[in-house]
């Protein structure tokens, strides 16, 4: 009968080395998959810019109210104002999943949450130069998930009025009357897209002093008065 070789069992040292390598690889994998609030905020802004949405540019069509909590009606501030303004919703009210349930409603199935960030103080003890324990506060950025009122059903919230909605072609009669009565008004071409060539003039208008004319994007309200004032060189 052929002799059978005894099977080699891995030594304890090799097992420990393999376990250590596995733990290190697992830790690196978890670290690469973990996204900090800084990463999430940066990704949201970069994705909006890549989609052609400029977060800090004032829209000429939308609500006058700032994003706020639907229960406390407290407006959001700082980066939260920017993050929630990136969303396509017209309702300015936001709430957490728990608040939606408390208002007798629920979030529609398949809806994705937005985030709002806040600072949390972490107090730790550290020895000073004299080796005495001293408490220091470390600010940590945290976030929580919120949903827009349009993403929910059955909420016990007042219905928003629709009188805010104004079409882009509609003008304020008084402003148009002033423009029509201007003596020798400068020529302003409306409805053009000034950043089509990437010249960075979007939203600012283009003034041509020699021709006493200018170009602006299609707008409403008091914007035409301001644009014509800028064509004249006035600081309106």
Please tag this protein with its features.
9 strands, four-stranded mixed beta sheet, 28% helix, three-stranded mixed beta sheet, alpha/beta, 236 residues
Describe this entry's structure for a reader:
The protein is α/β, with parallel strands linked by helices. It has two domains: 42-153, no CATH class; 173-231, no CATH class. The chain is built from six helices and nine strands; from the N terminus they run H-H-E-H-E-H-E-E-E-E-H-E-E-E-H. The chain has helices spanning 12-33, 37-50, 79-85, 97-102, 173-180, 223-231; strands at 68-69, 93-95, 106-107, 114-127, 133-148, 152-153, 187-189, 206-208, 213-215. The longest helix has 22 residues, at 12-33. 11% of the residues are buried.
- Can you tell me the overall shape? extended
Q: Supply the number of structural domains.
A: 2
Radius of gyration: 29 Å
The main sheet comes to: 4 strands, mixed
Annotation field: number of helices: 6
**CA-CA gap between termini:** 104 Å
How would you classify the helix and strand content by structural class?
alpha/beta
* Rounded average pLDDT: 72
Helix content: 25-40%
- Beta-strand content estimate: 15-25%
Number of strands: 9
The SSE order reads HHEHEHEEEEHEEEH
Strand line-up in the sheet with most strands: 1-2-5-4
Name the poorly predicted regions: 163-169, 191-204, 210-222
